[in-house]
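Annotated sample (chain length 205).
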Amino acid sequence: MAESTYECKLDKDLLSLLKSEMTQATYKYAHLYRYNNVAAPIAPDEKEAMIGKLQGGAGSFYRFLVDHVTEWEFNIFEMNDKASHLGGNALIYLGYFLLWRHNLPAIFNLDEQKLVQWLEMVSAGYGTTESNVTFHTNVHAADVLHAVHYMVTSSEGIKRLRLKDHHLLAIFLAAMMHDFSHLGVNNTFHTKTQTDLSSVFSDTS
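Output written by the structure step:
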């Protein structure tokens, strides 16, 4: 089988820090696991030194995300502005961080290369704030992901829902995907203009 030619354009040191924030990572032999084949976890006593080495605003971005992600008032637009200078955007970095915050890639032995590619693909499938799709953007998807995460992992949400790991994985992936390839128009528009989507779903969706 040919080796993958995938080249991650995200800040790998930042990914390592985000991965290491909450996960119960095994640092010895970490490189042997496929859920570490993009970024290796950082030992707790190495974090501050790594943060000091981050370039281009990655350090302030890391602090902003870690310090505020559990708040309902989390400013997704501010996060997206910071992320745009780091080779990604709010959806990619927030999705990566929240999945690792609950150690889900390790629990389900997800191939990290494929996970990061999936995050990039999902993000690219949304409009951007600069496109003609003004609401259903990757920033909106990140905002929904954050809101869903807050609701299901707050103390009240945990007590009421009693979610297991596979529930969290499904919920987070669905939140990221929920408006994928949305064109910013409703069903009536598709029916009246006889778009391809209207034909596929026989005007009944």
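Annotation: The chain has a mean pLDDT of 82.
Annotation: The radius of gyration is 18 Å.
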